[in-house]
Design a protein that fits this description.
kinase, kinase activity, seven-stranded antiparallel beta sheet
Amino acid sequence: MRVKVKVPGSCGELVQGVSKGTNFLITCPVNLYSTIELSSCRETAKNDLTKVELALEKTFRYLNTEPAGYQVRLFSDLPRGKGMASSSADISAACQAAALWSGNRLSADEIADIALTIEPTDGVFYPGIVMFDHLYGQLRQPLGPPPALDILVLDAGGEVDTLQFNRRQDLRQLNEAKEEQTAQAAAWVIQGIKTGDSELIGKGATLSALANQSILPKPCLPEVISIAQSYGAVGVNVAHSGTVLGILFPPALREFQAGCLQAVQCACPAVRYLTTVRLIAGGQSMEAGEEEAYEEL
């Protein structure tokens, strides 16, 4: 028996903050993934599986099942500590893998309920783009599929511990101070997704990125925004509790991406290019079946 679940990571968030006392983010899923595989074979990948094993245990307990012996393997495209939802992708994929192993399937809401008992969670496992309370799960609003956008992923350097970040004593006050900007940013992004208007999405993401400078400043962000816009990018988003920035480009302007990247690297040598990804709809892909004979679910 073997099951496999794949969940995308993110390039930070399109928007993040507080609205009327509720924490939220708007997801920014991309085509980089974490994959959890459970099998009866004895191969194991050499990873730190602490959170994955906890997610498996909590899911088995939730389903009131006693799992038969299994081996777990984790494969991930996502760097750690950068704000690319690596742990959220790992944990959510593990929850669904445990359910499949037990002959069940979890809804996205059930996965969220389990994952949030482990740590703050990005909603990348929900279909499409969602507005999601990453701390308590009080808000779970589907927004729809995104228009096509390429994202040049940049790293401002260092790592951010999500748990420690969300325990900051001043975080609530700082988020409330930028609530008006966050509300406007969210309104633009929501309308942009609804109408397929990438410029509105970029406009909202850029506003949220700038507003977040009071909480977790990104070196060179104003310069990156200025350069990106001069090359036709629709905007810049950030990991609000991480280190990455994303330059949002319509696919029709791919010919300008290399020049934009070169200009950013000249102006901001401390900002490192990681990769180019696509904004995608979030969700999960699942396979289950006998060894080497998967059935896609």
